[in-house]
Amino acid sequence: MLDRIKASFDPYILALIATIGLASLLPAHGAFAQICDSIANGAIVLLFFLHGAKLSREAIVAGAGHWRLHLATLASTFVLFPLLGLGLSHIPGLPVLVASGMLFLTLLPSTVQSSIAFTSIARGNVAAAVCSASFSNLAGIFITPLLVTLFMGSSGASMSFAAAEKIVLQLLVPFIVGHLVRPWLAGFLTRHKGVIGYVDRGSILMVVYTAFSAAVMEGLWSKLPLWEMGLIFALSAALLALVLAATWGLGGMLGFERADRIVLLFCGSKKSLASGVPMAGVLFAPSQVGVVILPLMLFHQVQLMACAVIARQFAQTPDE
Q1: Structure letter (DSSP) for residue 114
Q2: Cβ–Cβ contacts within 10 Å for residue 191, how many?
Q3: Which residues have CB under 8 Å from 197's CB, separation 6+?
Q4: Under a CB-based contact definition with an 8 Å cutoff, are residues 129 and 119 in contact?
Q5: Residue 217 CA to chain centroid, in angstroms?
């Protein structure tokens, strides 16, 4: 079991932790903070351009016929999760910062790469997983900002004209442009997949550094003691366990075959760090972003560790 946990630990989490440490010790401020903010905005545009460019139309067509499965995945991502998030945020005595961060992560779309990877390991329907995860990410560009405004408007997020314009220009337009130019970029992206991965993750690290720098300057660590970090981790584990049980049970109730139940299990229980960090940078004030994305980063690691173990268990279990 210890070897499985070690194998499932994402080294990128170490980079995120190091970035938080750097922002805590040497936060960007003054003119340097403005430069970092401009770079972070550019990184968000680049991230969503690459998301669009990597989205395969062929893969979507191949899995698009499983509409009941895709609707179930979207319902888990944008209905079940937000309802659970609302419930968590109203737990008596739960610190406001923890409640806000936990609620935000429940409003995000599903991951793409890890959902597909775990589905493949577990011998699920990979084509349908590609489609479900891609639909979730695409829908999240529209749905997540609306849900954040609806449920978190009092926390500083708003859908003013300026905010809507920022979402369109920094998220939607780059995504569409990236997808439109995919026929010319697909080969390049495939040949340089490793480099593109570093660009993806490096962009997120830049956004995280800028966000946490602003939060540290606002006194983040005096507002968020260590015990609250432990509370976030425990809530993340409980939330994931509940959704994993619900999605597996829902798949059975809907009469899905094992391969499709696996898709719902993995695609419907994930939350995207790659989409969540830049979205937070667009939707929240700089001083709020670091606090809001902290639960997401902890949940991200919890979901990777748990789903890696579950996927390997499925791989070793004969088909029913």
Answers
A1: H
A2: 10
A3: none
A4: yes
A5: 25
Indicate the DSSP class of residue 270.
Answer: -
Both structure tokens of 217:
């300057």
Contacts of 292 (CB under 8 A, 6+ apart): 100, 101, 104, 280, 284
CA 320 to chain centre: 32
Could you tell me how many residues make up the chain?
A: 320
Cα–Cα dist 17/23, whole Å? 10
This prediction has a pTM of 0.73
Q: 21, exposed or middle or buried, with CB in 10 Å at 0-12, 13-18, 19+?
A: exposed
Q: Report the largest interatomic distance among the alpha carbons of the chain, rounded to a whole angstrom.
A: 62
Residue 117 CA to residue 208 CA, distance in Å, equals: 25
Distance in angstroms (rounded) separating the CA atoms of residues 118 and 149 = 32
* Cα 263 → chain centroid: 17
Residue 190, amino acid: T
Backbone angles phi, psi at 272, to 5 degrees: -90, 115
Confidence of residue 246 (pLDDT cuts 50, 70, 90): very high
Per the CB < 8 A criterion, the answer to whether 218 and 81 are in contact is: no
**CATH 1.20.1530.20, applies to 2-313:** yes
pLDDT (tens digit, 9 = 90+) per residue, 129-183?
877 877 787 788 888 888 988 888 655 455 445 555 666 777 678 878 888 888 8
- SS3 per residue for 202-255: HHHHHHHHHHHHHHHHCCHHHHCCHHHHHHHHHHHHHHHHHHHHHHHHHHHHCC
Tokens of 248: 């597996």
Please state whether 147 falls in left (phi above 0), alpha (psi between -120 and 50) or beta: alpha
Token pair 């010319």 in the structure block, residue: 184
Query: Would you list the domain boundaries of the chain?
Result: 2-313
CB contact at 8 A, 82 and 106: yes
